[in-house]
Amino acid sequence: MCGDGDSSPNGIHSQIVRLVWSAAWFRVVLRARELASSHDNTSSSLNAALHAWIDSVFLDSFLVKVRRLAGGGNDALVGKDACYSLSALLKDIHKHRHLLTRENLLSLDNLSFDISALRVREDEYWREHAREGEALFIPPHLDTRRSEQRNAEIDHLCETTAADRKQSDIVQGAALENIQDRLATLAAICLYTNKFIAHAATMESRRGDKRGNADDLRIGIRDLWTALENLCRAVASLDGWLIGRTSHAFLPSMYTHEWRDIDAPFVQSESVPALRKFWKQLEAEAMDWGNPSIALKSDGSGAITP
To answer: Core-most of 33, 141, 231, 276, by most CB within 10 Å?
Structure first.
């Protein structure tokens, strides 16, 4: 959905799948901590610094990606600064809603408006191809049930009935507003991310935003999972009802081999001194960065170096 190709990493569906995968693994980490705390043995103890880093990296990354999908920046799908987001896609669909006619939606799936005529063609196909004792596959475009079902779905989207169907029926705004309402639930997360993660907002900026006081926001783990659910349901609604007619499994299955070594120690005891030494090296390097240097000179290539 909405990308440069089926394999585009920037496509909305690709972004969602990676986000769900990441969030699910973080939930597994949280669950593992709960299990570890219930064990009365030292083998289940955890390193506080390492896990604090895991939390920080996940939360910052997750919030930025939710904001990006919900539409935290440019909401244009064309132009040199265009970005793929759900809000941009919804705005584009609203702008071109006149194209969301029954005729166009049916043509996307090569389905029929005239069910009576289609039933005649389906019966002819049966007579020509049916063989006793053999199964017969009906091509989707000749399958009366498929066209009947799709027309019934379009009735709902266009707020009409089977008796009043017309090929010129247009999808009504209410169908899109329901999806927009799901994105609206992400407003607090987008505001928090804008002020504290994507940007280091000043106090004036944090407290003077017309969307609310960012300093008053509190985002919990359950809020993140709920936000992800709303993103997934918005994508599923758009793709399933309007665009690709696709049902998604956003979280891939984990097979036995993918759990291999998850219970193995991350660091062996004998490796700890080497890691502490390596940290000291990093500390010394960072300490050197803190030495003030006023004199700047060119290295001959035009670059300015201390």
So the answer is: 231
Using alpha carbons, list the distances in angstroms from residue 235 to 13, 24, 90, 180, 197.
8, 18, 10, 11, 25
Backbone conformation region of residue 261, classed left if phi is above 0, alpha if psi is from -120 to 50, else beta: left
Q: How far is CA 221 from CA 11, 120, 132, 144, in A?
A: 26, 56, 60, 47
Q: 144 by DSSP, 3-state: which?
A: helix
Element housing 160 (H / E): none
What are the residues whose beta carbons fall under 8 Å from the beta carbon of 90, sequence distance 6 or more? Answer: 176, 179, 180, 183, 238
State residue 237's pLDDT score: 85
Chain-centroid distance, C-alpha 195? 21
**What is the end-to-end Cα distance of the chain in Å, rounded?**
49
User: How do the domains of the chain map onto residue ranges?
Assistant: 12-89+179-263, 101-170
Burial of 11 by CB count in 10 Å (0-12 exposed, 13-18 middle, 19+ buried)? Answer: middle
Output the CA angle 57-62-64, nearest 5 degrees.
100
For residue 3, pLDDT over 70 is answered with no
Q: Which residue has the tokens 């709303």?
A: 230
SS3 304: strand
Q: What is the 3-state secondary structure (H, E, C) of 277-292?
A: HHHHHHHHHHHHHCCC
What confidence tens digit (pLDDT) does each residue in 145-186 have? 999 999 999 999 999 999 999 999 999 888 888 888 888 888
Contact 264, 52 (CB under 8 A): no
pLDDT at 91: 86
Closest to 16 measured CA to CA, from 26, 28, 2, 27? 2
Categorise residue 186: left if φ over 0, alpha if ψ from -120 to 50, beta otherwise. alpha
Q: Is the pLDDT of residue 238 over 70?
A: yes
